[in-house]
Write a structure and sequence with these properties.
The complex is a heterotrimer of chains A (282), B (257) and C (248).
Chain A: H1 29-45, H2 59-99, H3 104-119, H4 122-132, E1 136-139, E2 142-145, H5 148-174, H6 177-185, H7 190-220, H8 232-242, H9 250-281
Antiparallel strand pairs in A: 1-2
Chain B: H1 7-10, E1 17-28, E2 31-42, E3 46-50, H2 57-64, E4 72-77, E5 80-81, H3 89-95, E6 96-99, H4 111-121, H5 127-140, H6 156-168, E7 174-178, H7 186-201, E8 205-209, H8 213-219, E9 222-227, E10 230-235, H9 237-242, H10 247-256
Chain C: H1 3-15, H2 25-60, H3 65-79, H4 83-97, E1 101-102, E2 108-109, H5 114-140, H6 143-151, H7 156-186, H8 198-209, H9 212-241
Helix pairs in contact in C: 2-3, 2-5, 2-7, 2-8, 3-5, 4-5, 5-7, 6-7, 7-9, 8-9
Chain lengths: 282, 257, 248
């Protein structure tokens, strides 16, 4: 009848993680669909009253007509995010191992890089890369052109790298010290311990935060439009101009972009939450 | 189970029960925890509820100050109908103070602030006047000098006494004690019991759920033995503890005494 | 007085590093104004987003099913869509739909200007995260502590204000810190709707003065300092809120 409790178990000031995992809060697939549909409805119907009397296309028709083009733009966003994630993860694991290294100099450098790329605004990093990376590189005498979207991808890979490094460090640190000691007493070297005993254990634990980083980077790819990459947001502005720049088209067109990202990112968010919950109880 | 036919009518007004329960039922989903509890407590009386764990004692006491809503039945506290859907909870809780097993002090406030908070926030009383009273209450529970300590810096017994002072600051007519010594170290149990005894001697109406049989025997005017959601047997402590009739009561008493 | 400008001028003459901001009053002025706008965005959005978080979390624990689903929907949508698109949607989409005043000579004066729209959308974005953070903190406050407040006569609203929120805040402060630092970084997105914040000002300077590399360095240093200051303030706050007797 009484909740089982110990004397002073107020968890105030105990280590804390934000849980996104309560069933109460979870929106099931059906309700998510409704939410998406509602969002779409709001976006497409709301501005209808603002329409002029001329026989112009309704906002809904405009979105429908341009949806294929806009979706190709969205595909580029997805491609950028996937490649950036790939590059960033590879570099981030290396950087994370640097954070865990025994050598103080390597560790300091890795720490400084991680802090720098985690704390600089992503848009600033993007500008940085766009201006400082040349438009082509010469590899073994072959000129390889670097289109803008590739440069932007590199720009997104940098914060991914820093965040992944931090995830690796935190996951390895969360393995109890006893594991290291046990391995050491079995005459494993530090490297062997790390790769054969520690990392396999925390791979599972790294998955949810890693997916979280992916969702963030996927949503950040639209910033590439600011530096001139023709991705979805750029195309949205172009479509708007092509349709005569009617102000009532803004909401449905940008709403369509919101909807695309929501339908892409929300399942990832739910999956992340589910994995988090499962690993927490495991 | 109820003494006499209708104590509401047969006793003179001055002796009217301040707390009355009539056929109180409480279910959590399928599980019926209270299966028709009736009793009455007169002003100034000290009542102990004993019984095996899981017998519904804590739920019973929580029903009295509406922390747990009843399923059916009636509870009346000094004229307030607790089961009334339009219950004025503030009015009820001004009359009924409660002390918990886990003390439940507010950990971000000092002992003094814990005592002062409710009169200021809930009753809107003057801060300076409340502060004077809070100092006096802390002295009364023998915690003068601990005003600035935070709950995390005090022992369980000290925290529990702050909790008692905190309840008293609302000037209640009835105090509910829900196994207030169960979470304490043996050496600090006594200081809390001494405080409660003093309160009882001053004439405060007290309803205690307790496992401290010796304390119940010494302090209580009336003891109720509950098991599986019903009152099995009750009476003054001397008779209940020495000559219980029901075998369940006997078995329980033989285990705990 | 003129030591700093002179030093940077001579740095330019001797090494070619052209930090116009530090000797050209016009560029300096633009930079400082940008910094002011960034600070304005940062302070207002942090405050508003904290209020949104606290109120949203309160509603989520409340009895109204309808209000709860509204808050849940808000959180889910704002967490899972790009903040930049949110800004565009608000500024272009809603901004053009809202009624606007007209000046005497018929010029359209929108209800909110771009700075205000940036504040609104950034605060909503960060507020959605704050709702979840606060809710998590509230769930960590023991039910029995709330019961204690209730049995002292506190209403739900008062218990939330005086007991639950102060405790929840302490629990979720680390997560809150992260989100507010993120919010500071996100203010750069206001650039996209021509809010003259730091990034915007610095970009103007480098396109006119042709000193991209130097201004990049200034930009990075500026954000490093801003993040550093915010981290420092949050740590001070964390220390001030620490409850004696509960050690980490």
């Amino acid at each position: 009848m009484r909740p089982p409790q110990t004397a002073s178990d107020l968890p105030v000031l105990l280590p804390f993680r934000v849980s996104r995992t309560r069933a109460r809060f979870a929106v099931g697939p059906v309700r998510a669909g409704l939410l998406g549909a509602g969002l779409a409805g709001l976006i497409l119907v709301a501005p209808a009253f603002a329409q002029g009397p001329d026989a112009v296309l309704s906002p809904f028709q405009v979105v429908l007509r341009w949806a294929p083009l806009l979706l190709t733009g969205f595909a580029l966003n997805v491609a950028i995010s996937l490649i950036a994630m790939l590059l960033g993860t590879a570099a981030g694991v290396g950087l994370g191992l640097g954070l865990l290294s025994e050598g103080p100099i390597l560790r300091r450098i890795a720490w400084a890089l991680t802090q720098f790329f985690r704390n600089v605004p992503w848009l600033v990093l993007l500008f940085f890369v766009m201006f400082l990376v040349p438009f082509q590189v010469t590899v073994l005498g072959v000129r390889v052109p670097l289109p803008d979207w590739i440069k932007a991808t590199v720009g997104f890979a940098l914060p991914v790298m820093a965040n992944v490094a931090e995830i690796v460090r935190a996951a390895v640190r969360s393995v109890p010290a006893a594991q290291w000691e046990a391995a050491e007493s079995l005459a494993f070297t530090r490297r062997q311990t790390l790769f054969r005993i520690i990392l396999p254990q925390c791979l599972k634990r790294m998955l949810p935060p890693w997916m979280n980083v992916y969702a963030l980077i996927a949503m950040a790819t639209v910033q590439a439009s600011i530096v001139g990459v023709t991705e979805m947001l750029t195309l949205t502005a172009q479509v708007h101009a092509a349709e005569g720049g009617r102000p009532e088209l803004f909401a449905p067109l940008y709403g369509f972009a919101l909807l695309c990202f929501f339908l892409y990112c929300y399942p990832i968010d739910r999956l992340t939450a589910r994995l988090e919950r499962r690993f927490e109880t495991a | 189970m109820f003494d006499g036919a209708s104590p509401m009518l047969s006793v003179p007004p001055a002796d009217l029960p301040i707390v009355q329960l009539l056929d109180v039922h409480k279910s959590f989903g399928e599980a019926e925890v209270l299966k028709g509890i009736s009793f009455a407590v007169r002003r100034g009386e000290v009542v102990c509820i004993i019984g095996p764990s899981g017998s519904g004692k804590s739920t019973l006491i929580r029903c009295i100050n509406a922390l747990v809503p009843l399923t059916s039945g009636m509870i009346r506290v000094d004229g307030i109908e607790v089961a009334d859907p339009k219950l004025d909870k503030l009015a009820l809780r001004r009359k009924v103070g409660m002390v918990f097993q886990q003390y439940n002090l507010f950990p971000h406030k000092t002992a003094l602030e814990n005592v002062m908070m409710a009169p200021i926030h809930v009753l809107g009383q003057d801060r300076r006047e409340v502060e004077v009273r809070a100092h006096a209450l802390l002295a009364k529970v023998r915690l003068a000098g601990k005003e600035a300590a935070y709950p995390g810096e005090m022992s369980g017994g000290q925290q529990q006494r702050v909790a008692i002072a905190r309840s008293l600051a609302m000037r209640p007519d009835v105090m509910l004690f829900d196994e207030v010594t169960a979470a304490l170290d043996p050496e600090t149990v006594k200081e809390v019991l001494v405080t409660i005894r003093e309160l009882a001697e001053e004439g405060m109406t007290c309803i205690l759920v307790t496992h401290e049989m010796n304390f119940a025997r010494e302090v209580a005017d009336h003891v109720y033995f509950t098991d599986r959601g019903v009152i099995v047997e009750h009476g003054p402590p001397e008779s209940l503890f020495s000559s219980a009739v029901d075998p369940r009561t006997r078995r329980f008493l033989s285990q705990v005494l | 007085m003129d030591a700093v400008p002179n030093w940077f001028r001579s740095l330019y003459e001797t090494t070619g590093f052209n930090f116009t901001v530090f000797y050209d009053p016009y560029d300096w002025h633009r930079y400082v104004n940008g910094l002011k706008i960034t600070l304005l965005l940062m302070v207002t959005t942090i405050l508003v987003s904290l209020v949104i978080g606290a109120v949203g979390a309160f509603i989520q624990g409340g009895p109204s099913r309808f209000l709860r689903s509204v808050v849940n929907g808000f959180v889910v949508v704002f967490r899972n869509t790009p903040p930049l698109v949110q800004i565009f949607f608000f500024y272009f989409g809603l901004g053009t739909l809202l009624p606007a005043a007209r000046t005497a000579d018929g010029l359209r004066v929108p209800l909110l200007d771009n700075v205000q729209w940036a504040i609104v959308s950034l605060a909503l974005f960060a507020g959605a995260f704050n709702v979840e953070i606060f809710r998590s903190g509230i769930e960590a406050v023991p039910r029995t502590t709330v019961e204690a407040a209730e049995s002292l006569g506190y209403t739900r609203r008062k218990a939330y204000l005086y007991v639950v929120l102060p405790l929840a805040l302490r629990v979720c402060l680390p997560a809150l810190n992260n989100n507010l630092i993120n919010l500071l970084k996100t203010t750069t997105l206001a650039y996209a709707i021509a809010v003259p914040e730091t990034l915007y000002a610095v970009k103007q300077i480098w396109s006119e003065s042709q000193n991209v590399l130097e201004m990049m360095m200034v930009l990075l240093a500026t954000y490093a300092v801003l993040v550093g200051v915010l981290v420092w303030i949050m740590h001070r706050w964390e220390r001030a809120l620490r409850i004696p007797g509960y050690s980490r």
